[in-house]
Amino acid sequence: MKKEIRKIAVLTSGGDCAGLNAVIRAVVHRAVEGFGWEVLGVRNGTKGLMDRPVDCETLTLKLFTGNILRLGGTILGTTNKGDPFNYPMSDGSHKDRSDEIIDGLKDLGVDALIGIGGDGSMKILNRLAEKGEFQFIGVPKTIDNDVAFTEFSVGFTTAVNSAVDALDRLQPTAASHSRVMILEVMGRDAGHIAIHAGIAGGADVILIPEIPVNLDKVAEKIKAVMASGRHHSLVVCSEAIKDEAGKTMLQNMVDGQVLYGGVGHIIGEKIHEMTGAETRVTVLGHVQRGGQPAMRDRLIASAFGVHAVDLIAQGKSNRMVAWQHRGVVDVPLEEVVVRYSNVDLGGTIVATARGLGICLGD
Ligand code: F6P
């Protein structure tokens, strides 16, 4: 039976991105204006629910006077560290703190939770909801766009736009100095940012984690561009590309977490060695996570926030809102968490890149 809802909570979890505030805004508008509920914003993801008293604030419409929709980051704060089921303690040990989160929600007296997160956060929040038996709806966000069942996650488009903007700025300087410019982009194990930005930004070579890199092919392409009379080229490289043996070319462990960044320098050196071309490397980094959300991120964020609240009103739980075929839908979280969405090597985007003669490193 559908229970009566009076109060819900919302939190952001995992790495930030542009468009998170637009989701929070939509949730508050729909919940307060549409249903007359109270909305609590939990600070710093699940960590806020471990704090005592729980770290949260009531979100009212007064907060959304116009600028929040346009604002990057998250007004609630977030964390991408600390799985509550295996939480890193200060003495180096790990502890299951999931009960503290469930108790935190009970303390707040909320009837349901909306969690805005990426694939890792969805797994954790879904598990917490099953254990704590509370009503939960997930909203997908991540610049990596690797959450299954949704064509777009909040933040992806803004990140791609910043990479395209970087290519637009790199091309004239590459042409002026007859250089090969390497742009390294984020995305973890998925090459969505690289391949979308590379096509839109006119790259000659796009390297993605889904296709192991054969450096001979890359050098061949650069030489062919030079032989055609164009003495500059653009290379877009995902941060987690793999060598021919399928091994990630560069990764670091920091606090038990895999961090990428810097592989573009290896590619730059290799291209120089193998072609004689002068190379320069730009690692775009967290620039991709910030900035004003692009139109599409604001749009899907708004649709996701409204639909998430509507699902709660309908008594639904353990579902994730998603964007499919020009509209918002919802899918079971148990199916989302066992799938990963990386670049479809048989899909339109890869076929387009190949059709344009872009070298994909194979
Ligand atoms: O998952 C989003 C993401 O930006 C990845 O693309 C990147 O590898 C990672 O987060 C960076 O994490 P951090 O902000 O902890 O450096």
CATH class of the largest domain: Alpha Beta
**CATH architect. name of the largest domain:** 3-Layer(aba) Sandwich
Number of helices: 11
Strand order of the largest sheet: 3-2-1-6-7-14-15
Shape annotation: elongated
Tally of discrete structural domains? 2
Helix residue percentage: 25-40%
Q: Give every kind of bound small molecule, once each.
A: 6-O-phosphono-beta-D-fructofuranose
Beta-strand content? 15-25%
Mean pLDDT: 96
At the third CATH level, what is the topology name of the largest domain? Rossmann fold
Structural class: alpha/beta
- In terms of per-residue confidence, which ranges show pLDDT below 50 for 5 or more consecutive residues? none
Rg over C-alpha atoms, rounded to the nearest angstrom: 22 Å
Biggest pleated sheet: 7 strands, mixed
Structure overview:
This protein is an alpha/beta fold and 362 residues long. The protein folds into two domains: 7-154 and 293-324, Rossmann fold, CATH 3.40.50; 159-289 and 345-355, Phosphofructokinase domain (Rossmann fold), CATH 3.40.50.460. Helices cover 37% and strands 19% of the residues. It has eleven helices and 15 strands. It has helices spanning 20-35, 46-50, 98-108, 119-132, 156-177, 192-200, 215-227, 263-275, 295-313, 333-336, 348-355, and strands at residues 7-12, 38-42, 56-58, 87-88, 94-95, 112-117, 135-140, 179-185, 205-207, 233-238, 252-254, 257-259, 278-283, 319-324, 327-332. Strands 3-2-1-6-7-14-15 form a seven-stranded mixed beta sheet, with helices on both faces. β1 (7-12), α1 (20-35) and β2 (38-42) form a beta-alpha-beta unit. The mean pLDDT is 96. The structure holds 6-O-phosphono-beta-D-fructofuranose (F6P).
